[in-house]
Known about the structure:
The chain has helices at 4-20, 75-89, 93-106, 111-123, 127-140, 147-158, 161-174, 182-195, 198-211, 216-228, 232-245, 250-262, 266-279, 289-292, and strands at 25-26, 37-41, 58-60. With 293 residues, it is mainly alpha-helical.
Amino acid sequence: xxxxxxxxxxxxxxxxxxxxxxxxxxxxxxxxxxxxxxxxxxxxxxxxxxxxxxxxxxxxxxxxxxxxxxxxxxxxxxxxxxxxxxxxxxxxxxxxxxxxxxxxxxxxxxxxxxxxxxxxxxxxxxxxxxxxxxxxxxxxxxxxxxxxxxxxxxxxxxxxxxxxxxxxxxxxxxxxxxxxxxxxxxxxxxxxxxxxxxxxxxxxxxxxxxxxxxxxxxxxxxxxxxxxxxxxxxxxxxxxxxxxxxxxxxxxxxxxxxxxxxxxxxxxxxxxxxxxxxxxxxxxxxxxxxxxx
Length: 293
């Protein structure tokens, strides 16, 4: 119970940092433009009475509608796809489902329509349908960016974590150098953390940083993995790297203070805590008072 405050604050840290980065994810198809964003659910690690598969804490980037459509797409399909994308933009999921269903009636393997149908059903919390169309999108074109992680998200909502892990891993395997998949690697790291898989969590966190070294939350996730492994010096380095990216986030200084304390660097720890409190005075209630003496 001593560090329960840290466990509760950590998901908030990750969410706030990702949100402040203004991150959005899009579905691309070959050389075509963006159709749909990838949702960014955050796993509430360590929060009491919450399940990892609950689908809480979703962060969704802005919808970005593509003007570039594949050459083989007919005017009829183009019109239906545009109508469906606009419906998703306006949160009109029934119209979106109608539009994309009309597309796959004409072209049953239209991967972008299948993906967007899955996403629309996820937003309506119809998880069975989300999985059905997510699986069809993967079957239609398993190399299309984001189709595996979209299916993984649906599996997460259904509580099928093993299948979700497999799809997240497949997404990263098929697109090993795609910077926009850093969030996928980070999320996979948190799934592994929840399961106590230290090496897998480390590998996934390192992958996130390698894909995007300038986003603070990925450095913070790596730092948390180091702390889970009692690798205090490595954690201190990762927290400092995160702070260099976002020096205004008090929770980073809080966790840096924790790492420094565990490493026996007490004065530096107090300095980090003091900086956290300077940025946000309410942080003091989350620090063991004996560490501030």
